[in-house]
């Protein structure tokens, strides 16, 4: 009996020491999710207007913290969402906001009750009055994959207006570029003198275009959608780590079994972190993720894949992308 008790104590001590070692390792793993669409109602348990489970925002943020995510940039997709992003950033520590109008939302600008000038004046006012929480102008850019939401003309017109916002506020830019045949890079080149720097997030384009953007002093943001195909992986390999940022773009862009990057995932990360269990929303429990609803904690899978592609440790890559992100978006923040 005494021997059994001693063994139980030894096993308990070993478990505690392993847990402590893991926690100490994680304290060194500091990550920033540069693209988290946390204003999406699914993060409040609301799917297509129906409340499927309780609001679990706090549990989502707790899982992110446990994964080493120390800050998240909540994306402002239009004027209304920019206000929501700032409100979230004030409600929850570690959240910050972007302010802008996504290319697929630019068709709504002319419908603003007081007109386009008032729309952008409100965006500028939001940025200037919330400088402790607003870290970028955007999400803005061009998107030719979804012209059914907004045609090229308003996209170009109101992308240009957001260079003016960056110029006025001196904030970096959070940029969107999807299948634009060089038009995005052309507009960046024409307006590059108007803003300090920025990141082209969720990059899925070819390496030649990436190099052109890098030559203009921009950073490249990668997530699960950036790692779908073998071609994507080849591009990701060639992005210098000192110009790289990482993101989830949650609740979208998870790494799926059909993606080329999935084969590079291991059951756990180098510090012992494992992806939490996921259940269908109908079987929701507070400790589990919801299937097909990406979360900030899953940035650890993006980190794991990119570390493998670049042939460096997860810790070294985490340190580098943290410094890249801090330098661009958080130069005056203690995070």
UniProtKB/TrEMBL annotation:
Matching SUPFAM superfamilies: Metallo-dependent hydrolases
Signal peptide stretch: 1-22
Presence of the UniProt keyword Repeat in the record: no
A cellular component annotation (GO) from this entry: cytosol
Residues reported in the UniProt entry to bind a divalent metal cation 1: 139, 249
Transmembrane regions listed in the UniProt entry: none
Keywords per UniProt: Hydrolase, Metal-binding, Nuclease, Signal
Residues reported in the UniProt entry to bind a divalent metal cation 2: 176, 201
PROSITE patterns tied to this protein: TATD_3 (PS01091)
MF GO annotations: 3'-5'-DNA exonuclease activity; metal ion binding
Family: Belongs to the metallo-dependent hydrolases superfamily. TatD-type hydrolase family.
Protein name, as recorded: Deoxyribonuclease TATDN1-like protein
Organism placement in taxonomy: Eukaryota, Fungi, Fungi incertae sedis, Zoopagomycota, Kickxellomycotina
